[in-house]
Amino acid sequence: MQLVIFNKIKTGVVLGAALLTITSCKKSFLDENLITSKSLQDYTTPAGLDDLSIGMYQNLKFAFNYEWAYATTNYGVDEFTVGGDRTEEMWNSYDANLTSLTSEVGTVFSAMYANINSANIMIENVPKYYGNNANSSVRLGEGYFMRGYDYFKLVKQFGGVPLKLSQTTTLQTDFVRSTAKETYAQVISDLTQAYNLLPATPAELGRITKYAAAHFLAKAYLFRASELYNDWNGDTKASDLDSTIKYANIVINSGKFSLATNFSDLWNFTTPDGPNEKLPEIILAAQFSNNTAT
User: Is the model's pLDDT at 202 over the cut of 60?
Assistant: First the structure.
């Protein structure tokens, strides 16, 4: 008796499932609907490119959002040291266990290249769709700055990396790794373009200026002149050191920046967007919201 009851229940379940399948599988079931609010078409209008420029600034916050994010860029030098947790210790000691952190390395690459793609869109689309006005140079300069800034972060950490200089519109799975020499050349070219295009005074707090570009140009030239690259930088070392001084002096002599009265004032945090975040020593800072919900 029990076996018969079980079979009847099982038959009923199967029939119920079959009926549900028959009534559910309409043609509309296979329709695909775009659920994202943005597409590449949005970036063929001035308003869309303005939105994209704001989105690129998220990348400046990347190195400060997570412990592993600043561990990948600051450990191993005298700015930071290992705390009690020791989770990220291998970044500080250049330990062989770094091989276990491939997901973190992948996240660094993904964050940098995602923003590089946004920068490529800006560089390609602003001349086509933005129009000839004062803001077009600013948007183009922001694109060049972000691309140079991200490739600078990548080359310092990984040496030569693939140079992707056009926007990605289709799936691409093969890339050729460029040399460190080629990557530094691209960084300096992009930051030079940014310096020439960006304004001296930002339209909004936190926007990039030509002095931020000059600062990173000085830094890029100094890095390229490093003994790390003695095997290929002999022809450019002397001129790179001259360029380091040139662009550093542009920032120093601009009259827009001055050292904090007390070095510790830079870290005298009292409130979000407080006085320490607006000191005249700051050339460029990542802007965070003071909305605790986000």
Answer: yes
